[in-house]
Structure formats: C-alpha cells, structure tokens
C-alpha cells in the first residue's frame, strides 16, 4: 500500500507538471496524447480566458504571443494559494508584483494598471455590505462623525491608470501622481472618482476616525496644509463630504 500511494503521488505530480508546462515536461506514460491535450487545453484556456476578462486593458496592450507567454509563465512558475476562480485575478496580481521577471515587453505601468483593474473586479465581487447598525445614511457628514464605505478604496498611482489604453500608453510617469477613489455604490455599480492629494488625505482621516466630526477633520486637514484660510478649507471640504455621501463613498454618519 505505501508503494502504491507513492506511485500514485508520482503519477499525479507528473500529470499536473505536464499540464502546467507541456512544452518542457513529458506526459505520464500510458496516457493517450489526444486525451492529455484535452486537459492541457482545458486548464490553459480557462485560466487565460479569466485573466483576459479580468485585465482587459492590460491584455489589449500585449501582442498575442507576448500575452500567451506571460500567461504560460504564470501557470508554470506561480503556485496559487487559492483554488477559487474568482481569486485568480488576485493571484495573478501577486505573481506580477512578487515573482514576474521583468521583460522588455512589459509596459512600465503594468503593475499599477493590473492593480487598478483588479480593484474594479475585487469591488464588483466583494461580499461586504453597507453598515446598518449605528450608522445613519442620511446624517450630516460635517457636524456628525462620517463613516467611510467598506466598498470604497482610496488609491494613489504614479501613472494615470484610468486613462491608459491602446494608443494612450505613457512612457514615463507624469510629474504629479494620480489619486483615485474606486467604489461600489448601493446600486451595486462600480465607479471611480478622480481626486487629489487633499481629498485623498481627507478620506484617509475619515477612515482612521471613530469619534471626531467632519468639521474637526477638515480643520485638522487645513492645519496640515498650512492653509491661509481654515474657513475656505472647511467650506470646500464640507461640499466634498456631502458629495461623498451622495455617491456612497461615505456610508453615512455614526448615530
């Protein structure tokens, strides 16, 4: 029995190794090539299709042969920690960030673009919901304590990832970073909002806050900015907080 178990394990390892890399590793003996090819194509086509659908802009920037070489390297060299298809995109992002060997065919913004596209998918399938207990969705985010949505991501990139596509491929990052808020609203639609450093910092303060009013957070922001007029910052920020509440970037205010 131990010998049988070891033989089975060796067969399984050879079988899966061949599926990962059929160009380099022979199939186990005794399996008809036609049948083996069905498994090879099934695994590769499913993974490639999911990645193309999850990263459509990134896919559009690669020539076919370069894209398939990238996908094959992901399958061959990366060991996924999750068995779920919905998490393949996150696994692919981890591969790009931690294991992908830089290639001349990779755009300089590939990692940031991949992260942005992953964020959109992650929010689309996220299981988090808007809080109900202790949060008033119609509260005053200036005088009350604003609560950020669990379905909002406050992001910063070197490249304008939301503008990149075929024919719009920057060689170098612009002088100013790109700030984006990507969120899913109560209508289950994923949206993005282009922001700036001050707005990103305001949302960061809201996310860290548990007991201070929106006005107090805006006054802190004005101090950090060394603003000449605290009143102007508070007035402008109050409008931003109200818009965030309308857009569902804020979930509401603490009751």
Task: Describe the structure concisely for a colleague.
By secondary structure, the protein is mainly alpha-helical. It contains nine helices and six strands. It has helices at 2-20, 33-54, 56-60, 64-77, 88-98, 110-125, 197-208, 214-225, 230-247; strands at 135-136, 146-148, 152-157, 178-184, 190-195, 250-254.
Keywords for this entry:
255 residues, three-stranded antiparallel beta sheet, 2 domains, single chain, 11% strand, mainly alpha, Outer Surface Protein A, domain 3, DNA polymerase, domain 1
> How would you classify the helix and strand content by structural class?
mainly alpha
Low-confidence stretches: none
Q: List the secondary-structure elements in sequence, H or E.
A: HHHHHHEEEEEHHHE
**In the CATH hierarchy, what is the class of the largest domain?**
Alpha Beta
User: What's the average pLDDT?
Assistant: 91
Shape descriptor:
elongated
Structure explained in plain terms:
By secondary structure, the chain is mainly alpha-helical. The protein folds into 2 domains: 2-106, DUF2063 (DNA polymerase, domain 1, Orthogonal Bundle), CATH 1.10.150; 135-254, Alpha-Beta Complex (Outer Surface Protein A, domain 3). Helices cover 51% and strands 11% of the residues. Strands 1-6-2 form a 3-stranded antiparallel β-sheet. It has a 3-stranded antiparallel β-sheet with strand order 3-4-5. Helix 2 (33-54) packs across helix 4 and helix 7 (197-208) packs across helix 8. The longest helix is centred in the N-terminal third of the chain and has 22 residues, at 33-54. The model has no long low-confidence stretch (mean pLDDT 91).
């Amino acid at each position: 029995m131990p010998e049988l178990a070891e033989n089975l394990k060796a067969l399984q390892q050879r079988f899966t190794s061949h599926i990962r890399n059929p160009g380099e590793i022979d199939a186990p003996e005794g399996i008809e090539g036609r049948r083996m090819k069905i498994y090879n194509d099934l695994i590769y086509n499913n993974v490639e299709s999911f990645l193309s659908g999850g990263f459509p802009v990134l896919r559009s920037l690669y020539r076919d042969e370069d894209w398939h070489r990238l996908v094959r390297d992901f399958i061959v060299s990366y060991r996924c920690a999750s068995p779920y298809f919905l998490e393949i995109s996150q696994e692919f992002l981890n591969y790009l960030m931690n294991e992908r060997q830089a290639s001349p065919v990779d755009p300089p913004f590939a990692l940031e673009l991949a992260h942005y596209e992953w964020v959109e998918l992650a929010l689309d399938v996220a299981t988090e919901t808007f809080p109900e207990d202790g949060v008033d969705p119609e509260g005053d985010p200036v005088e009350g304590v604003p609560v950020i949505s669990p379905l909002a991501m406050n992001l910063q990139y070197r490249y304008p990832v939301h503008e990149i596509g075929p024919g719009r491929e920057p060689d170098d990052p612009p002088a100013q970073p790109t700030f984006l808020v990507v969120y899913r609203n109560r209508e289950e639609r994923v949206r993005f909002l282009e922001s700036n450093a001050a707005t990103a910092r305001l949302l960061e303060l809201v996310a860290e806050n548990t007991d201070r009013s929106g006005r107090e957070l805006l006054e802190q922001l004005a101090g950090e900015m060394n603003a000449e007029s605290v009143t102007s910052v508070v007035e402008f920020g109050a409008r931003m907080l109200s818009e965030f509440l309308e857009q569902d970037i804020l979930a509401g205010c603490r009751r």
